[in-house]
């Protein structure tokens, strides 16, 4: 965990509020934006994901202007294409779908993934993290873990992702709220439930 926290301190100034001019003019903040803007590996990862999961629809949600990671959403159901309309897709799937949300940090060689189940019933959307993994999900995990270990990436477990880095603040999160997940991946989401 120390290795991960020390990496974070390279990109986020310690003890400086985000709205302080010292934050945006700090070496750490400058280093963060240089790292994001200089990253060129997205197309390689997308191609490799498509190679190891050829029968799964993969959507690239990467936005390096805002986040510190590549993000991909992968349908767990094989041979089901993403449709233009979420409502059309969810109805085609009988009111429920499960997708793997895959994060790859551009700040260091770390990755994380979680499953999200989306349900639509009686005009209402609900989202949760499935506790029980089926065979297809376990197979996807194995393929992704093999791919990533071959590229010298380390999977962060849930407990590390949820660790609070108390002396860091971000644009959206105050001191005491920022986790390792927020720093390495995105501050708009959490690592979900274990």
What is this structure, in a nutshell?
35% of the residues lie in helices and 20% in strands.
Protein structure class: alpha+beta
User: What is the count of DSSP helices, taking H or I runs of 4+ residues?
Assistant: 8
Main β-sheet, in a few words?
Answer: 6 strands, mixed
Q: What number of domains? A: 1
Judging from the principal axes of the Cα atoms, what is the shape?
A: globular
| Number of extended strands | 6
What is the H-and-E element order?
Answer: HHHHEEHEEEHEHH
Mean pLDDT over all positions: 88
Share of helix among residues?
25-40%
Low-confidence stretches: none
Rounded to the nearest angstrom, the distance between the terminal CA atoms is: 18 Å
Strand content is 15-25%
Gyration radius over CA: 18 Å
Please outline the helices and strands.
Blueprint: H1 2-9, H2 21-24, H3 27-38, H4 42-52, E1 58-60, E2 69-75, H5 86-92, E3 96-105, E4 110-121, E5 124-128, H6 135-150, E6 154-155, H7 158-161, H8 180-184
Parallel strand pairs: 4-6
Antiparallel strand pairs: 1-2, 2-3, 3-4, 4-5
């Amino acid at each position: 965990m120390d290795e991960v926290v020390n990496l974070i301190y390279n990109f986020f100034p310690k003890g400086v509020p985000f709205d302080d001019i010292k934050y945006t003019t700090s070496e750490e903040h400058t280093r963060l934006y240089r790292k994001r803007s200089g990253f060129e590996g997205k197309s390689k990862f997308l191609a490799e994901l498509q190679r190891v999961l050829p029968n799964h629809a993969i959507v690239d949600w990467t936005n390096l202007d805002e986040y510190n990671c590549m993000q991909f959403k992968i349908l767990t159901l094989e041979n089901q294409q993403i449709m233009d309309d979420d409502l059309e897709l969810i109805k085609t799937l009988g009111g429920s779908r499960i997708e793997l949300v895959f994060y790859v940090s551009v700040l260091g060689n770390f990755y994380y993934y979680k499953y999200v189940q989306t349900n639509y019933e009686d005009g209402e959307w609900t989202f949760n993290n499935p506790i029980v993994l089926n065979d297809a999900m376990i197979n996807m995990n194995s393929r992704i873990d093999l791919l990533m270990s071959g590229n010298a990436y380390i999977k962060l477990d849930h407990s590390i992702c949820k660790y609070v880095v108390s002396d860091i603040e971000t644009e959206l999160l105050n001191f005491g709220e920022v986790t390792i997940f927020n720093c390495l991946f995105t501050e708009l989401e959490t690592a979900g439930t274990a």
